[in-house]
Amino acid sequence: MPTIKSVVISCAGIGSRLGLGLTKALVKINGRSLISLQLELFKDVEDVRIVVGFQANEIIEEVLKYRKDVTFIFNHRYFETKTGASFYLGARHAHEYVLEWDGDLLVHPDDAKMILNTEGEFICYSEKSSDDSVYVKVNEAGDVLEFSRECGDYEWTGPACFHKSHLQYSSMNVFNMLEPYLPMKGLKIRAYDIDTYNDYQRVSEIMKSWEHES
Amino acid sequence: MKFLFDLDGTVTSVETLPVIAEHFNVQDEIMELTRQTVQGNVPFIESFIKRVGILGKLPVTEINNLLTEVPLYPQLQEFIAKNKEHCVIVTGNLSCWCEGLMKRIGCEYYCSEGQVENDQVVKLKTILRKEQVVDTFKAAGETVVFVGDGNNDLEAMRHADIAIAVGLTHSPAKSLFAITDYLFYNESALCRQLNLLL
User: What is B2-197's CATH number, 3.30.300.20, 3.90.79.10, 3.40.50.1000, 3.10.180.10?
Assistant: First the structure.
């Protein structure tokens, strides 16, 4: 049995770059909300923690359609802070190991299973696919050596798994919280961020191809 | 660490005043007032004075016996029983009405007080301000967690170190969404978090 992990899904953001006037968790991909797709990946996880901010009421309503035993956590300062703050709030009173999962990330279901079964701390990355992203530099073993805005071997998409002793408040991004602890074990996964409308359109097609595979 | 709990609809799985009202057949007056109060449409103190005005004429002993039997959320009851020294019930309810229930729950408690004569509440002596209980524990150096569901818990939650809103019996007052740290709709998830906070 893998160690009990808490999963923190950060859904507090405004989603302004996407331009659909919706927080990203509520965006529909092929007819299903992103948050409902994520909840399906975590149906066997006991401690699912959802950080809400912008459109909290609507996200809560949507989540409650699928399960009621989640922990909702409010990031009241979502406008001034980034994902690091949401993750901190979601993780500070969680289990010892906490999996950080962006609300706007679509991960292949097989890779999601692998992530949930992986022990200890790790950082996930994917093949480069977005225009405006943060990259990781890795060694031969695939361990993450560095995050970079300019260049790298892969794209940092998350998720990442932290031990709570490494959790410190940051109003910045999750990768800034990880930087002091590098190098860290890396896992290559199939994952796509949804930041822009182009990402959104592409992800809809990718989802269809994944469904076709299974 | 102190866990302060609202009583009605948070630890009890039903609201207590409607139970009294139904038993004595005065539910029409009480139900509407309770609903409006929980939603924050009638100020709590005004509503409480009105409710005691209606229910105070009823026999105190019978109300106390009735409330002693009110159903509790079983996992929360167990959490409180196991961690008595950390748990406190903080309720606007009158102590003369809920002494039996408090004995059953078994932890420290704070209530409003009424003057009882001839088995009736003749006068309202104090109305509990929940935030003052929070402040007292904080001043004593405790980290205070407040768990509540109604608009009358808002100030206590704002003063607490960690605020937990719950929607176990009915939807939590929407006003709590602006200040709460946590929100739960499920008893197991709530108890899991309480244990993680211990």
Answer: 3.40.50.1000
